[in-house]
Prior knowledge:
The protein is of the alpha/beta class.
Amino acid sequence: xxxxxxxxxxxxxxxxxxxxxxxxxxxxxxxxxxxxxxxxxxxxxxxxxxxxxxxxxxxxxxxxxxxxxxxxxxxxxxxxxxxxxxxxxxxxxxxxxxxxxxxxxxxxxxxxxxxxxxxxxxxxxxxxxxxxxxxxxxxxxxxxxxxxxxxxxxxxxxxxxxxxxxxxxxxxxxxxxxxxxxxxxxxxxxxxxxxxxxxxxxxxxxxxxxxxxxxxxxxxxxxxxxxxxxxxxxxxxxxxxxxxxxxxxxxxxxxxxxxxxxxxxxxxxxxxxxxxxxxxxxxxxxxxxxxxxxxxxxxxxxxxxxxxxxxxxxxxxxxxxxxxxxxxxxxxxxxxxxxxxxxxxxxxxxxxxxxxxxxxxxxxxxxxxxxxxxxxxxxxxxxxxxxxxxxxxxxxxxxxxxxxxxxxxxxxxxxxxxxxxxxxxxxxxxxxxxxxxxxxxxxxxxxxxxxxxxxxxxxxxxxxxxxxx
Length: 469
């Protein structure tokens, strides 16, 4: 990191992580310094996806002969990193200083520091070469967003499922009411045979089907990137060899054909946001699921879902050079290291909690949660720290999303942990970002909704146009 880019110590310091330097504070400080210089110049990004949709972001940086101009590079790289995982895209236009654009080209290249992002956005997700295009600001394409209405269908007999890294949730839903819900422990990440995933999902669907007179539709929620019901990439399938990944990519198409009913599978974060929008009867909802990783999803002010990625687990929220490294991408300071069970496992030793190493991750989380319910001071500090992370993360997210509500779901919000998270996050917003606190409401659903709400909302995804029995 260039030393001309200033990191800001937060007012609320994590009791277990004094190095945390929120991205939102650093970005705000950078923009204030640019404005105060009187020599700011525009920097414009446009992220294009293969369907022709374009997301655009405009900001200001120091002019090239300013003594702080080197700070532009760090600011622009971290900003592009966030935009890539918010919007997605395989072609990035950089309008403005060519020195900034060239730096981004070097980083987001096959051999660059962001090679993971290069291959992920190109070959893996969009199946197109990833490119960074330098251009004049006048040549940056205009915004061209695509939204679609999805979910909110409550008619008929439906199955909803939610695939997490440690548990599989399934619900039977009749005319909008859940008649059956079940959590099933599984370990998908360690499996190298796609048959394991197929068998587990099919067994869960059959379990739910037995609770209803028929099955009219199936809706699914799962971590990862899903395009037209195809799994382009997902940590759930990390153990699958590359040569067999097509079996996973088309897994849900196979299940749909075998059940012979409408089926929709989307990213779990989108379903989190949809569940929030449905329960709140309002729009402008960012859903954050704090589970095995961090899942994000967004319902626009118009009540629609976008074709953005919203993979906030990979979006940076901490600019500290000592920030933890995200295990998959190899990048530092990404959301998944702070707003998930990964954070709990990382902070537990600092809190004086020794987690047994010979149990699955789901049981490790339960173990730490039990120490919290027992009032162990170290466990309290873990969730307080996560709440501080969450507060600064939400303030950061409001710089990129037009929001009215943030809905929190996921196993990390169960029990006392949820209220501790909420209290600490609100404290941060109230004192550091009063404008955000005044216009954005953070919602914690009741315990039942937190644990199985994903599967119930997922059931509403398919549109049953014509039902014949």
